[in-house]
Amino acid sequence: MDRRLFVRSGATLGALGMGGLGFPRFASANWSPRLQAGAIRMNSNENPLGLSAAARQAVIDNLDLANRYPGDLIGQLSDRMCSYYGIDSDQLVLGAGSTEILQMIVQAYASPLRKLVLAEPTFEDVNDYRDTYPYDVATVPLNSRYEHDLNRMREESERDGRPAMVYICNPNNPTGTITPSAELDNWIADAPEHVLFLMDEAYYEYVEDPAYWSALKWVHDRPNVIVVRTFSKIYGMAGLRLGFGIAHPLAVRRMQDFAIHSSANQLALAAGIACFGDDELMAKSREVNREAREVTEACLDELGLEYLPTHGNFLMHRISGDLDTYINRMSDAGLLVGRRFPPMLGYNRLSFSLPEHMEQWADTLRDFRSKGWV
Amino acid sequence: MDRRLFVRSGATLGALGMGGLGFPRFASANWSPRLQAGAIRMNSNENPLGLSAAARQAVIDNLDLANRYPGDLIGQLSDRMCSYYGIDSDQLVLGAGSTEILQMIVQAYASPLRKLVLAEPTFEDVNDYRDTYPYDVATVPLNSRYEHDLNRMREESERDGRPAMVYICNPNNPTGTITPSAELDNWIADAPEHVLFLMDEAYYEYVEDPAYWSALKWVHDRPNVIVVRTFSKIYGMAGLRLGFGIAHPLAVRRMQDFAIHSSANQLALAAGIACFGDDELMAKSREVNREAREVTEACLDELGLEYLPTHGNFLMHRISGDLDTYINRMSDAGLLVGRRFPPMLGYNRLSFSLPEHMEQWADTLRDFRSKGWV
């Protein structure tokens, strides 16, 4: 089955009736809710708190702009973000979610001469987008600590002396693990300019480990480091589609050649202006996420199911038996979990919802155990 | 000056301070409002009525979905649209505005062997997007009636026997003129499959001329005809970013390879579901547009300024003297008009706002006349 059939258009998905097709990507994430109203979504790494009150009000207050092409609000948000990050406005590019930024980069640097070096498993969008472009792809399994295997990725990126793009998702989706920032810094410091570092920091704001920091400091002097962030996670705006890239002006200019015109929508911009940099909101997102993680880990400890140390708003844990069967049984219990992340098919990725939802999940898992299913 | 610097990121625009740079594309459209609060926008072909009441309510009612990736609403909207247009769901693709659909198509069919045949002047996005791809571009001036010159476009598309993409914006932006649908049908009926017709019908719902109809009937049997439409115009949703393409399943599948994941946002989808196919809304948009056009044409007739026969929500009229000077003077009077559409620099494109706004514009134009400026 061609996965690309399933990832883009709801239309196509709808026509095919996802229920009978197992769980190709986005199927459980996007389609089960219609099949099963009231189910709890723990399958898309969304923020269960929803929009902040200020962001909700900002959407309502800006409804009069819904018939106008974006413009003024882009400037307002850009000004705030540039001030917050200490960057110039030509170092920032907005998109319809960070996925648009990833697509821009894949397209902007596509070349038959360029090797794309990716971890396995990692977030799939870069690999999806490159599929129609002439990259030479090298896939490097995560190391035994489920970190990016930087030694092997470096070998791959340097093997032929050709241009390379290295995709680093840190924390990594779907594993939640971090790759030590000091080791990344060492590599970046040594790397030639024809090795491009695509640093996906979608879950940056959740991390509290001192071994982790952003790659942002590199973008001022190095055109070969691009940092990608999103409003989808810590700010709870996944449905509004707002992400961004921060890079050297030379990289931003190239990326913009592949941007969709007017792609940040007015209501997302209004919401973003209302909540960007809101420390209280971020602290609350982290706190609820921590509580949810504690409930989850306590249950997995109790049942003796291994899980990876997570730094995001999700966790990957062992299951017994077939992954699709597990996902379907959880779905039958009103809990949408998972999707497949080959080759880790002995694990399920579980997105943290509210702590009370995790209690419900834990009770269900205990029930599965009593039935001998996990 | 590289125009691409100015079209994508508000960040870049903001940094450069658009005021002093004349009117590169989108500059007046997007940036003047901040420089000049309260100015009336007559420069972006927006619907001055704004979101319908039902669409506004739908946005508010769906705020709880703002933290969730789009999915269920895509299916709901797709179902409605497919039923309305009599198409299968694998013939529809949604995007962040019709401009994302145009970008998908440009990317999906890019080849050093393919000739892109465009009118001049026409809507710029296709030409912008192709800039980084290896198209061989042939530009064909509009004919003396300001229609697409189909004879010459056909010659260009057939000259070498190579694959071609023909972009037909009908009604044409910026001229507002229509190209007779019967002539287009004749060409499409005769054309080989390696000539792709990209039919941009963004203003379709405004047209009341019996010589005009959609190219939709072709998409069932012909993979080489793609129709592009938008919620930005008749539905007043330009700021929400929702457009769509209708085509043969083979074409849709290819386009989806270049789509941004999850790009139709939840609130746009909710608004779209609330207003799609709403006859009363469309009739009202047309009626207000007609009244605005009548005010505009009466003033131009009175002042003896030639204008093109328009079928959209905008009109192109003669000015005297320098276009930038005219646009700046209108801006000083609180009216945002224009932008440059070479080679028609003796004309200004005026988007219709509410009739009372057009009266204000007419008074301003009369004042300009009294000063000898037009």
Q: What percent of residues of chain A are in strands?
A: 5-15%
Mean pLDDT of chain A: 91
Helix fraction of chain A by DSSP (H/I, runs of at least 4): 25-40%
Q: Which structural category fits the helices and strands of chain A?
A: alpha/beta
The first-to-last residue Cα distance of chain A is: 28 Å
* Radius of gyration of chain A from CA coordinates: 20 Å
Number of DSSP helical runs of chain A = 14
Shape of chain A: globular
Number of strands of chain A: 11
What does this structure look like?
The structure is a homodimer of 374-residue chains. Chain A is α/β, with parallel strands linked by helices. Chain A is 39% helix and 14% strand. Chain A contains 14 helices and 11 strands. Chain A has helices spanning 4-7, 10-16, 27-35, 53-61, 72-85, 98-108, 125-129, 150-158, 181-190, 249-256, 266-275, 279-303, 323-332, 355-370; strands at residues 40-42, 92-95, 115-120, 136-141, 164-169, 195-200, 225-230, 243-246, 314-318, 335-337, 347-351. In chain A, the strands form 3 sheets. A 7-stranded mixed sheet of chain A has the order 2-8-7-6-5-3-4, sandwiched between helices. Chain A has a two-stranded parallel sheet with strand order 1-10. The first copy, chain A, has a two-stranded antiparallel sheet with strand order 9-11. In chain A, helix 9 links the parallel strand 5 (164-169) and strand 6. In chain A, helix 4 runs antiparallel to helix 11, helix 5 (72-85) runs parallel beside helix 11 and helix 12 (279-303) runs parallel beside helix 14 (355-370). Mean pLDDT of chain A is 91; it is low at 1-35. At the A-B interface, helix 1, helix 2, helix 3, helix 4 and helix 5 of A face helix 1, helix 2, helix 3, helix 4 and helix 5 of B.
